[in-house]
């Protein structure tokens, strides 16, 4: 970082910001934003809609917002001497917000930032010591290169994911596994989990975090008396409202909407300690979490959000051709990640320091305000809203939610067919606007890699929303080159854990990115496979030794070669091989299913509490899709030299050891429920604990096997390198004539 001006000049500029800058137009603009938001909510006639549909489409907390917004408008009047005027004055004080005088530029690179690289080296020292304890190996015997990089991630799912994830992480913390991991990653409720863990409230203890939740989740986030009371309580109200004031006052183009208010309500519940005395201001910025992770003593948290790229209607075919053909006219999601170090987007291959989130950029550089200062980092309350804004879904998503309860309506078939035909249009419409933050890529034409959509350069703000719109497990950031994850442990508390296979969603991503080692096909098995097919696959895959497996693989390869030869013969004769009018193509579902049966690599019909898959780094030279991964049954399968990423998957399932709670049937576990009694928290915690206990030893064996494989490969490399050195020395002696030279005193006769 660099300073744009001297400290004294900045301080002088800061003190010059007072009541004069808090003009009436700013007050009017804030009031207008709040009025429009409240008016939009008030205009909805909730009684005109069936309650079932209303609950599915519109969260009930939104109905309580109009009264709340009226009170909020009074608090943010920006009048001289008001709370908002005090907030804005402190926002311009570099002694309180030092980042406002730091210069920032956009870093264009697909490499990890320097701060994360330093963290990885420092974290390795801690994970080496923790792994020795976890596996019962003397620390001095562990080589740092053998220590696997372990990542742990949680799913989306609102408070259900927050509470269940906290319990799962607590179980790993008590088992010694959590100290072995390098990264955590979250979507939606799991982002809330990470943000709370790195606060002074939880003190980096999941046990304290759970106790905090038991005290704070008993009241609805939008319950007017409780929510409004916090806006009247100093200094808590100042800390909670600071982000909104800074956003609205600093950027005339900034939108203020439901997501911002939602984040404020979440913060009032989650970031306020028991007793509601005050909020720790240090807990309200993501970059401040560096105080817990610098030095490597804690894992690096990764928060996620997505932007919905909707191609412009007037975009030319030449511009569209910069993207892959199948994506030309379709909308897609761009993933953005936040760490305490950097805010970065993979598709843009660019990012900025996290402390610079919230300021405006132009052509890759900070756009300074008229007083020579920038804006403070975007506060955590606004980020909580963005990360958990699943209600910003598209009309297509909403229809999929309500479709099951519409199937009994008269004429449903025709309606369903009509909507299906318009899905390409429905997936581009968001009834509720996502939140907006300044776009760091604004006007960076020709400065980013080719293929970036034009809209990125022309929009002053990024509209970000819940990453669960794309994938409810944050797999993609953990597969980023440079993070080199060996083991991914996923705790999936998704509401649709058995119907939406979030692990398999990643298959297309890894193919597109050319990522090696991902276990293709991991997750819940496809419903089209019959039990007989699954039984045959499992029987074919059953092998007790590596030699037997190699023999079976050889047989499968030969069978596949014959099948391919037959396919070529059919193609030459004009037969598509299907006989049902379907077209022949690489990756056809029938062909892929046949491939899986030949290779004996299918997953079982149902999954258990703990499931392990292993990928492969081998190059596939034959045509067709790679074989589907199967569940790991024997530890030696993890030891193959070409083994790739090991995925350990814990779905949040009912468990007979914890009666009275079922994630698929218990009403209070709905994603849209925002009230948990202490007893309900205890039930969720007990269920998550019981599920982890089911796979505790399998997880330890998996970690041990991956460690042993890395150790074996390192020792083989070292032996190979030593053999090369020995051979080089031998050749050098031969060239210099030293090899075979007779000793001193020898006369060279045949008796010597």
Automatic annotation (TrEMBL):
Q: Identify the stretch annotated as signal peptide in this record.
A: none
Q: Could you tell me which SUPFAM superfamilies the record lists for this protein?
A: FabD/lysophospholipase-like
GO cellular component labels: cytosol
* Annotated PLA2c domain residues: 98-502
Looking at the UniProt entry, the stretches that span the membrane are none
Give the similarity note.
Belongs to the lysophospholipase family.
Task: Supply the name of the protein.
Answer: Lysophospholipase
The scientific name of the source species is Lineolata rhizophorae
Q: What is the lineage of its organism?
A: Eukaryota, Fungi, Dikarya, Ascomycota, Pezizomycotina
